[in-house]
């Protein structure tokens, strides 16, 4: 017996989105279809999303409509003056503070939709306003929130690895940055790198090592300079590695380089990801703070509507 046409054609929710990737890392810009999030600030709206509307995050980001690599960017009316949009980023694990590759995706998406053109655009985020510049050639520079090193040379004992040493730094998210010297970070190493960085994160948790005010360090970043090339591997909060060199991670790295006196203001730092994609970073010092600027390129990959039908047991995502 064929189902009644009303059952197969009924839709309870439609969420319009545009997907892109920045240096290989995907961003899903959510244009509309979400319930209104209460809050005077974007930080409060991010809280509301986590507290009361989490199933909307899982609908968008988890399988079967999303995946563990995806970062979503929910567009919201800005709360700060002169901003082109507000945005709350989230992934398979929960909301993010800032997202560098995601901001490149947002700017590229807004340009693709004809909402902005080349030039400077202020974007409101839960951790502050960032300014993104869309260049004539399609590259996007993100002037991120100030970055800083919180702790230098923190050692932690990691099961199966022994003692590991790294810096704790803020670049819009919290990072533990480990210098792996001349060790290569290549595609074939990814399963081992996943395992290693997840172990490091667990060890930091167990040792009670945190960012400022007890904030969880949810990103682990390995750095290599094998063959004179700066390459990284970044483990994201949801257990997927960043395909891009990670905008907030590169910002945290710039803060460490600045603190060590290893990179001058305005000097360009070329940061490769484990898949070989590149962001360029530089910083300036204003009011005694490191202001990072990260430049990369995003490309549109998909546009459409996420659809929810009544009776779908996985409408709100597959929660592992
Ligand atoms: O580019 O900042 C970034 C980022 C954070 C998590 C994934 N990408």
Automatic annotation (TrEMBL):
The keyword Protease does not apply. Keywords: Plasmid. It comes from the Bacteria. InterPro entries: Pro_racemase_fam. The keyword Nucleotide-binding does not apply. Belongs to the proline racemase family. PANTHER family: TRANS-3-HYDROXY-L-PROLINE DEHYDRATASE. This is Hydroxyproline-2-epimerase. The lineage of its organism: Bacteria, Thermotogati, Deinococcota, Deinococci, Deinococcales.
